[in-house]
Amino acid sequence: MSKNNSTNKSIDKEKSNDKKRINNIAQIKIIIIGKTGSGKTSFVNRWVNNTFSEIYKSTIISEYSSKTIKYKNNIYKINLWDIAGQDHFASLIKAFCKDAKGCITMSDIMVPSSLTDAVNWKKNLDENQTLPDGSNIPNILIQNKIDLINEESAKENYNQIKAFVKGTKASKSPVIPISAQYNFNIEAVIYYLCNLPIPKRDFISPPRFVVIRSFDINHPGTEPENLEGGVAGGTLTRGILRLGEVVEIKPGIISKGQKGEHIVQPLYSRIVSLRTEDNYLIYAVPGGLIGVGLKIDPFLTSKDKLKGRILGHPGKLPDIYISIVVKAHLMSRYVGTKSVDKSSSHVGEIKYKEVLLINVGSISIASTAVEISGENRDIIKFSLTPPVCAEIGETVAFSRKLGHCWRLIGWGKVLEGGETI
Ligand SMILES: Nc1nc2c(ncn2[C@@H]2O[C@H](COP(=O)(O)OP(=O)(O)OP(=O)(O)O)[C@@H](O)[C@H]2O)c(=O)[nH]1
Ligand SMILES: [Mg+2]
To answer: Which protein residues touch ligand 1 with a CB less than 6 Å away?
Structure first.
């Protein structure tokens, strides 16, 4: 047998072993949304750590936790993304819902308006993300804090919710009453999540890792010879990343030239460690949050400097654009309009030269509408500052500034990239 043949066989064997090990653990990404104070973080803390606090500390942006459980002879790793419930965080949902397999919308049984909020949060989610087959992300509607009412009122409340969601998309969501405080019915929610159909993960395409955070893990004063390279934290949306591989990060270092033009310098490095919050890995697959240890100068990764970048195999990443053309879909009303005058809650069209915030991958960037065309004036060219690495067909979300807050006004698909760098 030739040397090449035996090498190919051993690669095939390794691939099939990988597949077995990968398939052994089902990764389930769940996002938790709903009104501020409804008990999202309390639910997570109760299930993951079996703790509860009466002291209310509102979540800022989002928190990630996970727990691995065995259910019907299968192992499930449930990755929970607890999204801050305050109105002004609603526009960030796009950054967190990618690849979500299920959703929990939380309502507070004592606050009737939290139910309307839960339904609006889910609408916002559906407008930003679907399952790969185009269907909406399955949802569970939770009524939390049922310890605060008696059994009869709880039943009555359940019936009211069913009547409220009848005829809406939410009517198919199971309604589960719980008490995060008294650990009531939490397991029922988790078992429901384990029964969600497992989406197909793509292990074949070149890897695409979205950087959500980046760090310098060295303590101040560490001797140069003991310095560890920079670390990028984020999520792998497709493909497999392996220890020891050379990777490219795009856009790398962005700076400005003498005429104010953007200059992008690509970054290449080798993966020296891969880890989840509780394990070191030899390879990483889509799902969950992963830390990728690199050989690059930790200064480049400090203070989230790489946030919003894409990491993958050299030469296999999308282009970097300073403008993109998007087909836009605008919502009819603003989401989370509590602080907005009702008469002005209508989302008007995007105007020429208007500055919006665009969410691409995990980054929000300022953008100006520089060309508007199409029969419905929905084909819009945006100039971007700074440039981004975007994929044709990728979904982006737009927010408009109202008062002091950015409000989600719609989403769109990237039709083509404009100028590249
Ligand atoms: N009585 C009772 N109180 C609860 C329960 N769950 C949560 N709380 C209380 O409700 C308050 C808000 O809980 P959080 O879990 O922080 O709410 P949240 O939805 O994460 O809020 P944001 O992070 O602002 O979006 C806290 O004071 C909790 O102690 C429950 O089951 N029963
Ligand atoms: Mg919270």
So the answer is: 36-42, 53-54, 56, 58-59, 84-86, 106, 144-145, 147-148, 179-181
